[in-house]
Amino acid sequence: MEAASLPAALELVAGGGAGLSPEKRAVLGASLLLLQRDYRFERVWFWGCIQGVRGAYYIAEGLGPDRAAPRSRLYSLNCVEWSLLPPATEDIVAQAEQLKGRFQGDPSFEYEYTEINTEDAERLFEDGKELMIKEETRLVAMIEQIDRAVGIIPRGAFVKTPLGSVHENRNFEGLSLTEAKKLSSYFHFTEPVNLKNKTLLEKALLDPSTDFLDSLEHDIPQGSWTVQLEKGGTVVVLRSLLWLGLTFYHVPMTKQYGYVYFGTGEKNLDLPFML
Amino acid sequence: MAEPPEEPPPQAVPREGQEEPGLREHLWPGRSPDQPEPYTSHQPQQSEPGPVSYEYQGVRQGADQPQGLRKSIYQPRAPDQDPYQAQDQRETVGQTHAPGQAPYQSQTPVQHLYHPWGAEQASYKLQVPEINISQSYMLGQDSHQEARQSMYQSYALGLDPHQAEEPKSAYQTYAVGRDHYQAYGRGHGPYQPHEPGYGLYQPGYSLYDDQIPDPNSRMLAIQNAKAYLLQSSTISGLNLYDHLANMLTKILDEQPTNVVDIIENISKDVKWAQFRKKMDTLRDEHEILPKFEAAEKRKALFLKANGEGDEELEEEIGEMPLPNVMETAFYFEQAGIGLSKDESYHIFLALKKLISIQPIQTCRFWGKILGLEMNYIIAEVQYHEGEEEEETEEDEVIEEGGKGVGEDEDEDEEKEDEPPKSTYKPPPVVPKEENGTGANKFVYFVCNEPGKPWVKLPSVTPAQIVCARKIKKFFTGRLDAPVVSFPPFPGNEANYLRAQIARISAGTQISPIGFYQFAEEEGEEEEEGGGGRETYEENPDFQPLSVAELVDSLSTWVHHRQSILKQGRCVWLNPFQKSEEEEEEENEEDEKAEEPDEQQQEIGPPLLTPVSEDEGIQNIPAWTAQPSTNLIPQYAVAILRSNRWPGAYAFASGKKFDNIYFGWGHKYSPENHAPALPPPVQAEYPRGPEITETRDPTLEEELAFKAAKEEALAAAEEEEDEEDVEDDEEEDDD
Q1: E strand or H helix at B363
Q2: Residue B375: is its pLDDT beyond 60?
Q3: Are A104 and B621 in contact (CB under 8 A)?
Q4: Is the pLDDT of residue B700 over 70?
Q5: Of A42, A154, B183, B208, which residue is most buried, by most CB within 10 angstroms?
Q6: Quick one: closest CA in A to B296, which residue?
Q7: So what's the ipTM on this one?
Q8: CA distance readout (Å), A165 to A174, B82, B259
Q9: Is A273 on the interface with B (CB under 8 A)?
Q10: Contact A274, A40 (CB under 8 A)
Q11: What pLDDT does residue B110 have?
Q12: What is the pTM for the complete model shown?
């Protein structure tokens, strides 16, 4: 969610019971502004909070002029001092996928590889890497995975210019109520995967300036998003069931939207059994 | 007559002299005439229709002019046409130039294009440069430039033909190429839009194109262009001319920044706005949104119920069944837990309504469970003693009735040939706990949203709890939804919800040590049950612990709810005690049913055990304790978060404490959920050697067997022969 609209947005996503204390809210208002100044971000998003066993990580993202470029991520343990996280690579993501269990809350905590193939072990030994992975790295991988899987925006909120860069659409007035209840009106805000698999007939209906991302319609498994009208039908709230804790809100016919993650940072692999 | 399309003469009708600055003020308020504007190129053009249009009539006054000008720009002016039609051909000829000079008069060109010009048509033959110009219109080049060029040409063109017209107005002829706008004090130079030669430095045009090589053909080109723009679309009935005019009006009214980037969207909006007006009534009907109904319901919460007098208020104050939801919400908010204040207040009022309907002694906001379609808001209540409603145990009665009916049918069939009776005896059902004890100590009411009616959840049975431990399903939000799972859940979503609530309560309802104490009446533990004491009461001498103590060690918190045993009950009950009679019957039958193993009495942790004894999961403790803030420790609140049931929280501050749950209603397990496998196939009948199939003997075996048999036979015959011989010999001997 946008740092500027943080207080109002937190009210709208509070339906899940997770939020921020007044202290954190107050300090975020100031510290996110300072982040923007120090790192020269154009936009700062408060991404959310990952609850560890002993502490919590608060995550912020900064966006540059091209909103679709890889975002800079920062974490903090107290919302006052922020540390920049290294960019996520495929290696890191693959390594961290093997780790299970909760986050500890200590960024320097080291996980040991418990299940590892002999091949991987040999490869690692050859590379000279250790069999330990730090929690910070796992944090990077987790945030990247969550953003890639369930970071969503409403359709039409961003436009792609002919030069390839992505900007907010100044003419976006919000989705209508009927549109807001459909999963096809929301896009994943990452590199599209399914777009090229569409049939020519479907592609002809797309508007290349706004339809350049994957929609939620074809997410696997089907039903991994819940769409609800909260607050008496004035806010549309989408919750992901694959990553429990990710909440997206949008007030129809207005420009307010955003997503935030309040959770433990674990994928819900039991989803097919639970639906 | 001279049409002064270029500029009004200084000595012209006063209105003209005033008109330009006045005009600009009207059209573009707040801009000084001196500033070069992006729209300045329009100004001369727009100004010029003014004088032009009024030229002929000579009646229009300056006062009208700005409005008239606007009208003339954006809408066809019917009245304009009338005076012209009466004029002679020359004037009509002049009028043909009017469009060129007043390009926004939509009707005139059409009229005049079809007007027979006679000989003059010949002079309007398009020549090459004009073709270029008109083609450039078609090609959709920069409209500004084209318009400007056309304007200049129209100025140029307009000059000559009108010079011959009767002096209806006092306008003078102007020399070609005269700078008409010097009177307006804008910038000078060849790069100003109003200057002659502006835009003519583009390739394809010479500097002298604003001269009048062939004004007639240019006029014709312009008329053609305008006529093309005025063509109505066969699909939508709009024409580009009007659309562009509307769009430009909108832009000039709103003056957005960087308008060129959003021009297409503005165009779309303008088109959309056209339709809106016509369909007003239809749109109003669509405005009945579901959110209005929801708002009605929520508003109803805030209305004071009729008949609520002071008496009831006193009663409530005395007994205080209504919990202070806002206070609890405040404490939890210090830790970042909780719903928004609006929702909390709505729940507060909804609880108040519940209390006024049901005879409730204590009430507590238990929490919120999220679901797929809707969420559940759950209230935990205790009835007044003696006012409890008896629940209809419909489900169990139906089940037993069904079995009874089945048995009768079997007996009827016994007289006929019937398949062997099954000796399967289902394990005895563990009876559920009485209302008010154990897992059914509290009664739970749920609603989907505050404002909707509260629904009471049925009591929970041990079978449901046992099954709920094995499955993991999301709640849909509808209480009557079936729970499709394996092992099959005995009940629908209401039962599943109740079972999960029971599990969560038993596992996560904690309080600071000392808050509750055992009642002193029951001093000795019961030997049979072994469940320890079941009742507790508040300790009047409770000394609150400091936040630091509460957070540092988990032994300062205790469970004040009984934990649920493996059996599904809080107090163990041997289900086989009742079945002694059945065992006697079984002994009479031939086939003995296998006697069930004697069940071990299950013992759970006693009431008020410290939380520190909760098992963790792998290397994670069962609870995480934190103060709400590190910055202001003297006012901090101790917060406990459960790791086994993510979503269960407890706070304590001074003498206040509370528990709450916000989550999906599932237990945490680091391992993936493995559903129970179906049981192995049952044995149909006892196996023995007599019915066990053996393999058929092979050929060799058969031959060997045959040979052996023959040998035996032969041996037997020999013996007989020998015996016979011996008998014979014996007989012979005798």
Answers
A1: strand B360-369
A2: yes
A3: no
A4: yes
A5: A154
A6: A232
A7: 0.91
A8: 22, 55, 19
A9: yes
A10: no
A11: 45
A12: 0.67
